[in-house]
Amino acid sequence: MAPPPTNKRTFELGAKYSPEAACLPFKINLGNYIEALEQGAEGIVAAGGIGPCRFGYYAQIQQRILQDLGYDFELLLLEPLGGKREELYRALAILLRNRRLYQITRILRLVWNKLRWLDRGNTLFRSYLPRSEVKIEARQRYEEFLAKIRLEENINKLRSHYQEYSSKLQGLVANKNEKATLRVKIIGEIYMVLEPRVNFHLETTLGEMGVEVVRNLSISQWVEEHLFGLFFPSHKRRTILLSEPFLPSFVGGHGRETIAEMVDAGVNQLDGAIQVLPFTCMPEIVAQSITPEISTVYNLPLLTLVIDEHSGEAGLMTRLEAFVDLMQRKKRGVRK
To answer: What pTM does this model have?
Structure first.
């Protein structure tokens, strides 16, 4: 069962019961768990982690907090292969109990294909929204696409949903003027980048301001790199190649990816980059100390958004408007 979509109460519950210095994803996840347990969930499936990032400790600390609050549940921890494998095997044994191999294969294929089509649909939305004549209709078409993919059980129909959605978006474009549209890369901690309810719908907001958002981080990319890295070695090689001149070592989380993606934005002459990170996130703080140098080297405008439960939408909008204005002035200056 899925918890309710992240909302104001989720923020309040997570902030109330989490350590003050914990990062925002920790607090939001804790709020998600509480809301799911209130609805009758009997277990929680959580991912584990290794390395400097505190994500590797999330599940254990959250389990203690929830138990202290009186919740009775079973934690199923999916540790990475470099962690404690016995915990991973125990969780998989419970999750896959009474499932036959063909059932597991069918479910995994459906999930994987849904992830791929959802990411493709999001890429299309980020490209067409700033160029659409009626932006509210572009948002509606995207929401319809998400709903259809979410409910679809037939793997063979996913492509047709995407094609229908693509045709509708193309019909909304007034003038696809590449030179007039600003292009900005979103970089930073993966949860903050991908969860619109936490980053104040950053991608949609920028799109409605006429800015195309470019983003390499995605769920399918994460799965390819971290779960099937043996078959997709190019992701890691690309990160190392791009980040090496500025950050030659692993710092945990997505710190190194942040540097690599900003370098990529500079090399491809995008109009700017926005780093999104939760307050107190160590890997992103390390990256944040390096991004000004990359900004100088590539003459790339940079906006850093540090978000916690006290952040407000009004303040974010003010900063985004100023940043977009800066990029527009720079673009007009370059053309002159």
So the answer is: 0.91
